[in-house]
Each structure stands twice: as C-alpha cells, then as structure tokens.
Amino acid sequence: MRRLFLPLFFGVLGTAILLWLGTWQVQRLAWKEGVLNEINTRIVAAPVAVPEKPDPEADRFLPVQADGRITTDEIHLLASSKQTGAIYRVVAAFETGGRRLMVDRGWIKPDQKDVARDSFDTTVIGNLHWPDEIDSYTPAPDLESNIWFARDVAVMAETLGTEPVLIVLREMPEKNTEVTPLPVSSSGIPNDHLQYAVTWFSLALVWVVMTVYYLRRMRIREKV
Fold this sequence. Notes:
By secondary structure, the chain is of the alpha+beta class.
C-alpha cells in the first residue's frame, strides 16, 4: 500500500487541479457571455450626440448620431470578407458642428478604390470605436498608395487632420450607396472559454484513466 500511496496521491491531486481549471473556465464563460450580451445591447441602443471628449474605454461602442458633411478626404484599409474576398474599408473625414471627426463608411471592392466619391451632407448614425488591430506584425501604411492595414485611430486622425474619434456607420446614410456599411459587432471579441473548459475536463478524464491503469499495473506486479 505504501508503494501505491504516492501515485494515488498525484492522481487525485492532478485530477482535482484539472477539474478546478475546467470549472473556472465554465465560470469565465458565463462572465464573458454576460459581457458580450451587454455589448450587443449597447451597440443597438438609441443613438446620442457625440461627447465633447469621448473616452476610449467608457465610450467604446457608444451609439451616436450627428449631422454634418462627409468629405472626400479618405483612408483606404485593406481587409477581407468571406463572401467577397479582398475589400477596402473607407474611413473619411467628417465635419460636424465645428468639429472634424472620422467616419468608417464601410467597404468597397478593390476596383472602386480610386473612384472619386463626392462630398455630401448627411446624418450619420453609428458607434464610436477604437479598434485594437495593431501588433508587431502589422505593416506600416503605404501613404503614397493610400493603403493601410489596420485602423489605428490616433495615426489616422493625424493623417486626416481630425480628432481621434471614429464613428463606424451602422446604417446606410443618404448618398452613401457606393459604400456598404460594415457595422461594429461583438463577433471579433474572442470567447474560447467553452473550448478551454472541454480541454481541461478531457485532460482530467485522461488523468484518471492513466492513474487507474498505473495502479492496476503496480498491483499486478506485486502479485507476481
């Protein structure tokens, strides 16, 4: 029995730890689903006026509405769509109430990149957003060709001469028919906790099976 104590101890300890990790991931899953539901509810809420000094954390996804003029000053961001393939997102300067902000108008096909789009007055309805799309592998924008690879709000604002405030359209404004809105959603927020929970619980089961197998082998050897 003394020889069996140590492997039995590690078997029980390992199983307990793996079950605890799986349970913790289930709890995290419930928390993340609550956060995503809250974000989804906020995204589609009634729009309000754009705050004077929006906060990138407190005002993320805030639904806003503003009257103004979408200008011809644009930034083109290379992206992709499962249905369409390569696309360009169009971010334009937006003049409203003496302020100059940015509007993510949506996407166009590559052959529409260099097509001149008119400036026009409209009512913009969308969500404030500060996308987290930059990492060490993101290429620098090709300013000569006006090809960007990520929405860096601060850098885009400096290029367009605007405040670092980005409104992502959620509805098609008048005269925006050549650009298809690509609204914000919670789909890009990772929620892998269920997968992690299944992994930990599966490892716990494997740990139990291996422990039982090892103990049986030891018992057989002792009898021999």
